[in-house]
Amino acid sequence: MAGIGLLWSRMPEHVHDEARYIISSLVPMAMSYFNPYEQITVSEYGEERFRRNKMFVAVSTYLSRVCAGGASKLKAELNIKDDPVVTLDENQEVVDTFGGARMWWRLCPKASKNKGAITVSYYPGEADEPRCFRLVFHKRHRHLVLNSYLPSVVRRWRELTAKDRQRLLFTNHSKQGESMWTSVPYNPPATFDMLAMDHAKKVDIMEDLTAFEKGKEYHSKVGKAWKRGYLLHGPPGTGKSTMIGAMANFLDYDVYDLDLTSVKNNSELRKLFLDTTNKSIIVIEDIDAIEVELTTKRKGSNKAANGDELRDRRMLIEFADKNDEKSRVTLSGLLSFVDGLWSACGSERIFMFTTNHLDRLDPALIRPGRMDKHIEMSYCRFEAFKVLAKSYLDITDHSLFAEIGRLLDDTDTTPADVADNLMLRSKRLDDIDGAPPADVANNLMLRCKRKRDADECLAGLVETLKKSKMESATPPMDSAEEAKEEQT
Ligand SMILES: Nc1ncnc2c1ncn2[C@@H]1O[C@H](COP(=O)(O)OP(=O)(O)OP(=O)(O)O)[C@@H](O)[C@H]1O
Ligand SMILES: [Mg+2]
């Protein structure tokens, strides 16, 4: 085999081109016939340079955690949680055994595509062959490797990473004209326990999420894509964003916060959706505000469109030149992922749209059956207040509760406003809690202080609520009266 190889490389220049072509295609065939080994390459990047090949990540984790015992060259880095992670270094070979077969793995370094030539590239690393893992195995194990070994590597990788998974918050941005996601670690503090809202509604949402999470078989039985759409609506400060965090915590899902203003057209939107992973919540916040902004841009006017205009409009989002069909994001483009053709791509995804103005949305978006669930986040009433009092002041009852309940019924106060009132005092509680509890007397004193602060805090809330009740009861001044007032 070596002899044939040598002959081939030394072939004289004068051999006819055609013969050379035939020989050059026969030699590798002959060599592979005699070579008892086969190889599979797992490149770090796929065809699209910016997307890391997930198989590469899976193999890297698998080898480092399962087969690195005999390796002498390792590399250490900090992971997203700032814990040290050790991986194989370049050119380190490790051996794995599976079903009695031996597998040789090696991490091959980046290699230049054209040795000696200078290549100009717009994208980092495009002139190089990316790093890759090379798996070598005996020919007779081909079936085993493809059908059992590689799937088992991926399965093991999933098990390994499930334990130390860090939840991520993704956001999209445009780089060199291409839309892509970037992520940061995401640990939202909110949970359903601390969400101030009607208890029955909260339980209903939690049950809905649990049913969705366990609904793989059900969805395939009824022939529906495994995904769910929620439309959260309500005034600002009623907990829509807090609810998204609570849902992410509840399901342990990643969150993709989609900024539609930086998406050029439907095909970019499609690419972004396809780049999302399973077990994720895709959020489009303040969808009504995006609509106003983009439409204003499209019209080239600084004047925001009025409510009637918005209601009449068929397109939800449309920007750039109206005549250029390729440069816009449309409602149908968006909805094709929510419940159209493309919704079947990917599973275990939750779509969340939030809005402060349900009445301003395009009817196509809110028609029955479009989103699976409409959730109204409303002003703070007594039941919701009790949740906030428990989380912020750690109390479940108080002499002022009855009065606060009545005042909340008479005013439209958001949970954010109530929380704000409770938090100012509770910050002072933190200061007190920070003091070293020297002895029992000191402890008792702190407890008295804590109670007094809760009293003060609720009294402050009563004052605020009374004030807003009075303000809402006072009829608005007409302009003549206003002018008179100003003169005096
Ligand atoms: N229902 C709620 N339960 C608990 N806390 C709440 C609730 N609503 C609001 N808050 C508190 O108020 C703050 C602001 O709420 P949040 O951002 O969730 O409101 P939003 O409805 O998303 O408002 P916007 O429409 O302006 O985006 C939160 O950080 C949270 O502390
Ligand atoms: Mg919000």
UniProtKB/TrEMBL annotation:
GO terms for biological process: response to stress. Its cofactor is Mg(2+). Keywords: Magnesium. Residues 468-488 are annotated as: Disordered. Residues 226-381 form the AAA+ ATPase domain. It catalyses: ATP + H2O = ADP + phosphate + H(+). InterPro entries: AAA+_ATPase (IPR003593), AAA_N_dom (IPR025753), At3g28540-like_C (IPR058017), ATPase_AAA_core (IPR003959), Mitochondrial_chaperone_BCS1 (IPR050747), P-loop_NTPase (IPR027417). Gene3D superfamilies: 6.10.280.40, P-loop containing nucleotide triphosphate hydrolases. Pfam families: AAA, AAA_assoc, AAA_lid_At3g28540. One of its GO terms (molecular function) is ATP hydrolysis activity. Belongs to the AAA ATPase family. BCS1 subfamily. This is AAA+ ATPase domain-containing protein.
